[in-house]
Amino acid sequence: MKQYNVGVLGATGMVGQRFLTILDSHPWFNVTVLAASSRSAGKKYGDLVAARWLMSTPLPEKYKDMVVYDASADVAKIAAAVDFVFCAVDMKKDKIKELEYAYAKAECPVMSNNSAHRHTEDVPMIVPEINADHAKVIPSQRKRLGTKRGFVAVKSNCSLQSYVPALYPLDDVFGVEDVLVCTYQAISGAGKNFDTWPDMIDNVIPFIGGEEEKSEQEPLKIWGRVEGGKIVNAEKPRFTAQCIRVPVTDGHLAAVFVRFANKPSKDDILNAWKSFSGKAQELELPSAPKQFLHYFEEDNMPQTKLQRDLEGGMAISVGRLREDSQYDYKFVCLSHNTLRGAAGGAVLMAELLCAEGYVD
Ligand SMILES: NC(=O)c1ccc[n+]([C@@H]2O[C@H](COP(=O)([O-])OP(=O)(O)OC[C@H]3O[C@@H](n4cnc5c(N)ncnc54)[C@H](OP(=O)(O)O)[C@@H]3O)[C@@H](O)[C@H]2O)c1
What is the pTM of this model? Predict the structure, then answer.
């Protein structure tokens, strides 16, 4: 496979640090450019993160002396130096939109973690096991932007990365109609740990700004279909969500209640989960989990601390499937929010788009 030089925008942040940790030993992608805000530009990466390195593994040596670029002021320089960029900057939505378009228009594809473009109709929002075919809108987006190479592709919000994968393989045959979901989300989802957010110790906060809307609406784009160079959202399933911040470092857990058009048996569901795989497995992408959905029989599983790192934090853990008195079934599922839910999901999407020839 071809080797790609890549840049990481927002490299000093929580998700940026995850990117660097994952990409340190990646077989296709070599990080050659780090960028952040003008506050960090011109400084050595090692000095910048010395007091704010949030990962449990040490900062890889090779990044320590790299001088950080200004992600906004150095677009032309960065675009000329790399094959594509990963973007995880914390800025106002309209500024992120502008920045990502600036890279695309400089003929530098953008693999984005941000929410700014998730509802742009010709920007694919890809979970490689589910809707790899949405990449087909990239030629229309290029036409709109007037680019040959540049485009923006996004990954979805971290909250839904457990329950959408678990529900999707059940839809074709049984018709998923109504879904009620309560998520229990880690503090790294806010870019924080217990040192930087001590109020979360021994605490639960019943509000995460904008999260419930994303958890209800984004699945409909993932479920959507490509028509006339755009993604048309699905109308079903109908989702309702409550999102709660809980005192764990990493891992978003979801309690799910689901109603079907044709109620399956418990074995039907378990078999659908066991046999589910997608383009990521078919293409044997380097970051793809071998088994996407793992079902745990034990009543007290999955647990955030025990299963979040399953298959490098890229697999989904599911458990406690049982019938419900109001919905048809209920179950619990879990994914790692900064791996599958953020940096790892974006790396997997980039692997897919490279393997499928969208990044030459
Ligand atoms: N944490 C998660 O689990 C998660 C999951 C999915 C998506 N996301 C999204 O990913 C993005 C980053 O999240 P995070 O948790 O990593 O945030 P974070 O830890 O606060 O890091 C923010 C990054 O953005 C950079 N930045 C801020 N203002 C900038 C500017 N004007 N120009 C260029 N760079 C700028 C910062 O650089 P400086 O160090 O120079 O300030 C830093 O590198 C956000 O959009 C977030 O919504 C996060």
Answer: 0.97
